[in-house]
Design goal:
Length: 227
Amino acid sequence: MRRLLVIPARQGSKRIKNKNIKIFCGKPIIAYSLKLAKECKIFDTIHISTDSIKIKKIVEKYGPKVEFLRPKKISGDYTPIISVLRYVYDYYKKKKIFFDEIWSLSACSPLLKKIDLIRASRLLRNNKKRIVLSITEYSTPIEWAFKINKKNYLEPIKKSSYKLRSQDIPKKYHDAGAFVGIPVNFFSKKKFDFDKYYIGNIIDKDRVIDIDNISDWKIAEAMYKKI
């Protein structure tokens, strides 16, 4: 079983400047993902997909050499991860280097443990026609959600659902934003519907945070120190 891991790390993050290489508890945050990827010992090739010479130089102090840079045409804010993965996959395919699975790991997941990736790899190995996605449980039932309407009044997302008891509501999960593993046969298709193929690998809620702003960053650092 040969696995390719891609860690996307483009420049140009807007809400947190230089997010992928910003210092997190003493090291660039991407260094934690690089260390994790190496320690779990399940990936044959680790590629950091970046369009930045600066990021490339920093990454190579902590991890493998960056063989090639990502083209600007797939480095925009709206570029889907699948386009990045496909580009890397095609690069190695042209060099006649083949893989059974293509993985993506977030550059900003310092709370992950190697067992998370190892368990996910076993799950994918046993479900070869599925795509394994890191997920975590919602802290609060989504049935209790409200929205603010045009009159600035609260309006339940679903009528009376907020009255349900939490113990009567099935658990719901969301994308943890940490990693995804895809069998290579999916890359032979031009398009496919991800939603039909997902299988979830659950990450504990106390090790998941979406780092979107400086407040999230500080919370993540506090969580990391506690762990």
